């Protein structure tokens, strides 16, 4: 199968008073048509920076893409001029941002914000755009959609605002949607509803979805494949079932162990990853995770491990992966 999106060795740097930060360091992953791919990691791991780079939304300065390729439907988006990339945003790739209250314009009605892209990219009249907006709001489960078009973001709950963002991302029928922390500000019940909705829409409409999150537990039942990022690199990737059944990087195992589980005795403490996420201006030599790793050896401090295959569709960047492969998280 030909990949819909293919990121190859992407490098993104930011200039700061403390030095140059390489937020994405030779990041590579792909997304197939109709597939749900998760990108997981702590804050500062580079997952959102990579996603924003796809649509060239990195502010320059201080950030810049300084290496790699982003191939979408066989074309390198990094070679597009400003007019060409504007035609991609919304029309060919939809984006759901982290916090809908700050992503939606507070002084424009929901209808105005939903129909603008449809009129621009699809050439619809005002009446046609309104009719499609109503259909989209019905599709994402919002009742009384006609009146919602006249409402403003502050009139809606957090879950409803997120549904509006999903409807906006679908409005121009893009083959790919990127959801950047789509459930961060929502309670767990609404999180499940939003994720079920997104999965159902992807399956029904054949849309590929990239979910960016810090929580491996959220994507356990929704993703087809998972990419785990740490300090700007992909440290483990593979099929979701394989990653959860046989995690093979100490960071992935740590993320899984820090998620509450129903099969543990009541009152059992969580097992957090020791230490703090790294300062990207002061990364240690060798493996970036070694200061926090309980499996660290002298080899880890001397050399950064490459992402190497362990099994079919399973890759890990750890010198100890062979020994960890097949060892389940606690």
From TrEMBL:
<dbReference type="GO" id="GO:0005886">
    <property type="term" value="C:plasma membrane"/>
</dbReference>
<dbReference type="GO" id="GO:0005524">
    <property type="term" value="F:ATP binding"/>
</dbReference>
<dbReference type="GO" id="GO:0055085">
    <property type="term" value="P:transmembrane transport"/>
</dbReference>
<dbReference type="GO" id="GO:0015833">
    <property type="term" value="P:peptide transport"/>
</dbReference>
<comment type="similarity">
    <text>Belongs to the ABC transporter superfamily.</text>
</comment>
<keyword id="KW-0547">Nucleotide-binding</keyword>
<dbReference type="InterPro" id="IPR017871">
    <property type="entry name" value="ABC_transporter-like_CS"/>
</dbReference>
<dbReference type="InterPro" id="IPR013563">
    <property type="entry name" value="Oligopep_ABC_C"/>
</dbReference>
<keyword id="KW-0472">Membrane</keyword>
<keyword id="KW-1003">Cell membrane</keyword>
<keyword id="KW-0067">ATP-binding</keyword>
<dbReference type="Pfam" id="PF08352">
    <property type="entry name" value="oligo_HPY"/>
</dbReference>
<keyword id="KW-0813">Transport</keyword>
<feature type="domain" description="ABC transporter">
    <location>
        <begin position="5"/>
        <end position="256"/>
    </location>
</feature>
<dbReference type="InterPro" id="IPR050388">
    <property type="entry name" value="ABC_Ni/Peptide_Import"/>
</dbReference>
<dbReference type="InterPro" id="IPR027417">
    <property type="entry name" value="P-loop_NTPase"/>
</dbReference>
<dbReference type="InterPro" id="IPR003439">
    <property type="entry name" value="ABC_transporter-like_ATP-bd"/>
</dbReference>
<protein>
    <submittedName>
        <fullName>ABC transporter ATP-binding protein</fullName>
    </submittedName>
</protein>
<dbReference type="InterPro" id="IPR003593">
    <property type="entry name" value="AAA+_ATPase"/>
</dbReference>
<dbReference type="GO" id="GO:0016887">
    <property type="term" value="F:ATP hydrolysis activity"/>
</dbReference>
<dbReference type="Pfam" id="PF00005">
    <property type="entry name" value="ABC_tran"/>
</dbReference>
């Amino acid at each position: 199968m030909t990949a819909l999106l293919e990121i190859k060795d992407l490098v993104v740097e930011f200039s700061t008073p403390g030095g140059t930060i390489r937020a994405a360091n030779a990041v590579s992953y792909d997304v197939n048509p109709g597939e749900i791919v998760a990108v997981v990691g702590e804050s500062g791991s580079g997952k959102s920076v990579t996603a924003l780079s796809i649509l060239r939304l990195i502010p320059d300065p201080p950030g810049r893409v300084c290496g790699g390729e982003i191939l979408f439907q066989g074309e390198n988006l990094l070679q597009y001029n400003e007019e060409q990339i504007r035609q991609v945003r919304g029309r060919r790739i939809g984006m759901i941002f982290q916090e809908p209250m700050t992503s939606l314009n507070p002084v424009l009605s929901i209808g105005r914000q939903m129909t603008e892209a449809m009129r621009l990219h699809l050439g619809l009249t005002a009446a046609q755009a309104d009719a499609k907006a109503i259909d989209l709001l019905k599709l994402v489960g919002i009742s009384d959609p006609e009146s919602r078009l006249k409402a403003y973001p502050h009139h809606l709950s957090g879950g409803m605002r997120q549904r509006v963002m999903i409807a906006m991302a679908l409005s121009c029928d893009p083959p790919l949607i990127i959801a950047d922390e789509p459930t961060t500000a929502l309670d767990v019940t609404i999180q499940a509803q939003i994720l079920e909705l997104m999965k159902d829409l992807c399956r029904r409409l054949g849309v590929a979805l990239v979910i960016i999150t810090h929580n491996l537990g959220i994507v356990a039942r929704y993703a087809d494949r998972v990419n785990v990022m740490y300090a700007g690199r992909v440290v483990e990737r593979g099929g979701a079932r394989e990653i959860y059944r046989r995690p093979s990087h100490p960071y992935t195992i740590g993320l899984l162990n820090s998620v509450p589980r129903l099969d543990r005795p009541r009152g059992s403490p969580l097992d957090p990853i020791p230490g703090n996420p790294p300062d990207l201006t002061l990364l240690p030599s060798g493996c970036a995770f070694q200061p926090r790793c309980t499996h660290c050896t002298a080899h880890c401090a001397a050399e950064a491990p490459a992402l190497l295959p362990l099994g079919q569709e399973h890759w890990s960047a750890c010198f100890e992966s062979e020994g960890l492969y097949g060892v389940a998280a606690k």
